[in-house]
Amino acid sequence: MLRLSKLTDYAVVVLVRLGQPDAAGDACRDVQTSPCIAAATGIPEPTVAKVLKTLASGGLVGSQRGARGGYRLLRPLDAIPIADVIAAIDGPIALTACVEGSGNGCSTESLCPVRGRWDPVNAAIQDALGAITLADMQEAAIPRAFRIPALPPSGPALRAAE
Amino acid sequence: MLRLSKLTDYAVVVLVRLGQPDAAGDACRDVQTSPCIAAATGIPEPTVAKVLKTLASGGLVGSQRGARGGYRLLRPLDAIPIADVIAAIDGPIALTACVEGSGNGCSTESLCPVRGRWDPVNAAIQDALGAITLADMQEAAIPRAFRIPALPPSGPALRAAE
DNA sequence: CCATTCAGGACTGATAAGGTCCTCTATACC
DNA sequence: GGTATAGAGGACCTTATCAGTCCTGAATGG
Ligand code: SF4
Ligand code: SF4
Asked: Which of B1, B16, B96 has the CB atom closest to A92's CB atom?
């Protein structure tokens, strides 16, 4: 049903969470750890760690090792299209086996009358997914109140997007 | 990798083939049988039959039982959007578990900050897939020879350019 | 020196897709 | 009317992929 993998979905959730440093509370400062995000999102910790590791290797988040380490966004949310997240987790978007990028050709490639005709469809999907950024997903994350005014923004308020 | 199921891909191939009665040759007349299409496309016969049965139940193709029976298109190719084929084979398009249509909710639905925000993405995909019809896939189906396979894109008047 | 935290992979179980086959029904032709 | 053909509709199994867990090692801060 054209369903994207659950890991990719989790990645979006985690990234949106990473983009809200004020929502993290005192437990996490400018970098957020895997257990912290796991507790905040309800996703099991090992899965969060796996997703974050994949995202880090994909260049979407930066990591800080050692004590007081964690992950932080390398780009603001509105600069991360969803297509990027999908590509980082699930690999390049390839609807069928005959689009450029996936080496595994199908067995009927020689006779298939629509061989290669999926490319524009693939491009259309990729374009649609590239036009939507994580900021669009975040917009409704804060429904009406900005946040629970539990802690004042006294801490390191926000380090900008870098 | 946002890959649609192979059965859906086969359905598109089969439907495009069904839309070319002249290419079928003498073996198949106005209706085409499963083995005929299977031989023409290279897809195994049982799979073709399965796809065609699913498409028939989905209302995309008409069937004629009995001897000299077969399948035929109920709509011209340019009236069948790809989204229709996907919906007939794989069910409704639902990128994640929290979009409307798929009853299986995810476990983190209560805490997820992007719950419900996938709907516009889903709609964008569906719109993109609804705008492309099978006729667009058929355009380059007959490059210049009728059934010489493995044709390099060296032809002059190809509509590639994607 | 030690606690913390990420890196990276290996491993396993669950799930669903892909593919095959069988039986039954309907139709055309002999 | 009989028979061959061809689809309808499922049951079945086989396999691939994903999701999830865990372990070891390396880096960093205290
Ligand atoms: S060559 Fe044809 S059957 Fe194979 S993946 Fe491409 S469209 Fe599908
Ligand atoms: S509620 Fe959140 S985690 Fe669950 S499917 Fe929707 S976006 Fe994904």
From this structure: B1
Specify the ligand 1 atom closest to the Cα of B41.
3
Could you tell me if B149 lies within 8 Å of chain A, comparing CB atoms?
yes
Close Cβ partners of A19 (under 8 Å, ≥ 6 residues apart): A73, A76, A77, A134, A135, A138
Q: Do the beta carbons of residue B143 and residue B151 sit within 8 Å?
A: yes
Alpha carbon distance B80, B133 (integer Å): 5
B6-143 is classed CATH 1.10.10.10:
yes
- How far is CA A30 from its chain centroid? 18
Ligand 2, residue A6: give the atom nearest the CA. 8
Mutate to test the pocket of ligand 1, among A104, A118, A121 (most ligand atoms within 8 A of CB): A118
**How far is Cα A84 from Cα A22, in angstroms, rounded to an integer?**
24
**Site of tokens 């989204």:** B83
Q: For residue B40, what are its two tokens?
A: 């023409």
How far apart (Å, rounded) are the C-alpha atoms in residues B3 and A97?
8
Q: In chain B, what are the domain boundaries?
A: 6-143
- H-helix or E-strand spanning residue A84: helix A82-90
State pLDDT tens for residues A141-155.
444 444 433 333 333
Check if the beta carbon of residue A47 is closer than 8 Å to that of residue A37. no
Give the span between the Cα atoms of A139 and A154, in whole angstroms: 24
Contact of B134 with B12, CB cutoff 8 Å? yes
Q: What is the pLDDT of residues B59-108, one digit of tens each?
A: 999 999 999 899 999 999 999 999 999 999 988 888 988 886 655 677 78
